[in-house]
Amino acid sequence: MEILNEFIHQIKVPTANDNIFSEECVFSFDTPESDDGLYVSLTSFLGFSKDHVERYYQKTKNAVFLHIKRVKTEIPQNESEEGPEKKITRLAIGLEGGLQDNSSKKYKYEDTYHIVVFPSQTKIAFPNENLPSIVNESANAIITSDSAFKKLEKEQCTGTWDGEMRQVSVHALDLQQLENGKKIPPTGWKCEKCDLTNNLWLNLTDGSILCGRKFFDGSGGNDHAVQHYQETKYPLAVKLGTITADGKADVYSYAEDDMVIDPYITQHLLHFGINIGQMQKTEKSMVEMELEYNQTFGEWAELQESSANLQPISGPGLTGMSNLGNSCYLNSVMQVVFTVPDFIERYVSKAIEIFNSATSDPVNDFNVQMAKLGLGLWSGKYSSIGEDSLDTGANGIKPTMFKNLIGKNHPDFSTKQQQDAQEFLLHLFTVIERNSHGQSNPTDAFKFQIEDRVQCMSSKKVKYSHRDEFLLPLPIPLESASNLDEVRKYEEEKLLAESEGRKLPDDALVRPKLTLKSCLEKYAEPENVEQFYSTAINDKTTASKRARMATFPDYLVLHLKKFTLREDWTSMKLDVSVDCPDELDISFMRGTGLLPNEEELPELKNRPPSPQMDPDVLRNLQDMGFPLDACKRAVFFTKNTGLENATNWIMQHIADEDLNSPFVPPGQESIKTVFIPNEEGLAMILSMGFTMQQATKALKATNNNTERAVDYIFSHQDELDMEDVPSSSTPAVATKNYRDGEGKYRLKAFISHMGVSSQVGHYVCHILKDDQWIIFNDNKVQISQRPPKDLGYLYLYERIKN
After folding, report:
1. Start and end of every UBA domain (predicted)?
2. Which fold has domain 297-532+551-587+732-802?
C-alpha cells in the first residue's frame, strides 16, 4: 500500500454537502455499466470514463480513484415479482410513477470496486482492510451516499407531482367551515345541481357537493363547483373518490387557481362527518385523468405513428435520449438543433478542444456539457437497436447533467414539469449567447432581422425600425380554413352528442385545414394601431403597421401559435391541420427599406405627456395576475373605458409577442433620443452593485430583457463604462453579421406536441436524414412511414443553396 502514501494528502471524505458523480462520466455518457466502468476521484468526487480519466489526472494531478464496474443480468420471468399493480402518479410513459410497459425485462445489478492509483494505474481490490483508513472512509462514503443525480431528483420531487410544486394553500390554516349541520355519507354522492355522480368536488367550507369543470372534449362535469366558488368565494374543494386512509386527496384552491396541499384535510373532512381512516380511493385522480386523456387525444397516435410497424435505426446522429421526467421538450429541441452544421462544428468537431480547456468544474461548464451532449448524439457509441437495448430503454443517452445545468435557477426549466418547446429553444439560444463571448456562436445560423414599418395615416409619412429574432411566430387564421363547412357541421354534431350524454368516435374528428402560406400571409398583414402619436402632426392618430424580414437566415424556425386561451382563461390548444410543404418560398416577405417615394416621420424631439391611466383598473387587472405592462397596454388601447373592456382586450391579445414587454405608447418608441429602461430590471441590476449607467446600457443593448442584460454585463465588462458615440450616419440596419440569401427553403425537421396544453402531454420530432424521415420519440429512433407534417408545432427549414 506504499504507493498510496504520497497521495494521502489529496484524499477527502465526502460530506452531505458534496456532490458525488458516481453514476456517469462528466465528459461522456459512460457509466459503471460501460465496458471499462467508471473512475470516481477520491479528491473531487467527479466521475470519469477510461477515455477521460488520464487527461483529468494530467491536468489536476489528483491520482486516486474508486473504480466501479457494474454487471447487469436478466432475472428469469418466473423469478421476478409481479406484485400488485402500481398506481399511476405522473404524466409520463416508462418513468417511475408513470404508465409502464409490463413486457419489459427485469434485471439485477452487481457492483465490483477497486482503488486505482495513477499514473501507474495500479489496481487494489476494495474493500481491503489493509488500505489507509482515510481511503476506506472516502470510498465507503462514495458507495453509500446518494449520487448527485439522486440528490437532485429528491429535491425536485419533494412535495411535487411530476416536478410541479404543490404548495400548501394559504387558505388551509384559517379555513372557514360553516356550522350548518351538514354530514356527508361515505358513498352515494351526486351533484346538487345536476345528475352527475362522478367528478364531484366537496366544498370544504359549506359541504356542497358539485360537479367539476367541463373538459376540452366535452366530457367531465358541468362547471357547477366553479360557479359555486364564483358566487360564494369559498376557496377549497376536495375531489370525492380520491380520499385515502393515509390522508392523501386531490385538493383544489379556486382562489389560488391550482392544485394545493391541505395539511389539515383530516379535521376539515371530519367537520362534515367524514372519517378519513375509513376512506378508499374509488375514482381517478387528476393525474390519472390527465394522463388517460392525453393518451386518447386524437393526435397522440398520429404523431407517434402508433399504427405503423416502425423499423428501429441506429448510428451517428441516430441516438435517442431518455425522458428524464417530462424532458421530451428538451430532447426534441436538442435533436433538432444538432442537425445544424454550426452546432456540430462548434460542439462536436471541437469537443476535445472544449474538454481540454474546461474549468475545474466541468459539471457547471456549459460548453463542456453541450460538447458532451453533441458528442453523445453523433459518436454513434450510445446508439443501439439490439433487442436488449430496446426492451430496457437503455438505447441512447440520459442528458441529466445538461438538463440540470440548462435549467439551473430557472423557474420553469429547473422543474420536472412539462414545458413549452418554443420557450426552451429561446432559452437555449440565450444561454449559448451568454457562453459564446469570443467564440463562434452557432445560433447565428438562426438569427435574422425583422423590419417593422409604421405609416401615419394622417400624414402618410413612415418610420422603419429593426429587431432581432430567432424564430418566426405565425398566427393560425382559422377563418382561412378550406373546410369551414365540414368543421361547423362537426362542431354541431359534437354539441348534440354532448347534450345527449354521448361521445363522437375518434374517426369522426374534423380538423380545420389550412396552408402554411395562409399563416405567413396573416403574419405579414398590415394592422391598425390606434392612438399612435405622430411626430408629423404632433398629435394622436391612426397608423398602419406591418412586419417583413430584412434578412433570410440559413435556418428558419417557424412557430405555429397553437396555444391560446378559452373564454374562461384556461389554456387550450388549437387542433388544426396546416399543410407545410417540403419546399417553401418566402421571397414575398422580404423587407424593402425606405422607398424613393416615401418620406420619413420626423424624430421625436420632446416626449409628449404620459397618458392618463385609471389606477383602479390597473390594480384590478394586476390582481387577476396580468403583468403591469400588459395592463398598461390594455388600459391605453381601450382609452380608459373601464375594467371589462381592458380585460377583453388582454384576452384578445394574450398571444401577442410584446404583450409583457415594457410599454411605450405607439409613436413614442424612438430610441435615437430616448431609452426607457425596464423599472424592475433596472432595480434588480442596481441591487447587484452596478451603476445606473451600466445597468441602463445593458438593458438598452438587450431590448430591456433583464435576464439577457445580466448576461451582457458579465460578458461586456470592458465596454460598460465606455460612452456611446452617436453617429449621424447610422445605417437603417445595424452592422451585425447577419447571414442572408434567397428566400427558398427546404423542410429539414419538425417538432410536434400531443396533448391539450403546453404544460402536459408529449413532444416528438421528425428529422430528414439522408432523404428519409426519422422519428425521435425520446430513446426510440425509428424510420418514419407517414411523417405527420401537417400537425407540427415548430418547423425547421434549411435554405436551399444554388
Report:
1. 612-653, 676-716
2. Cathepsin B; Chain A (3.90.70)
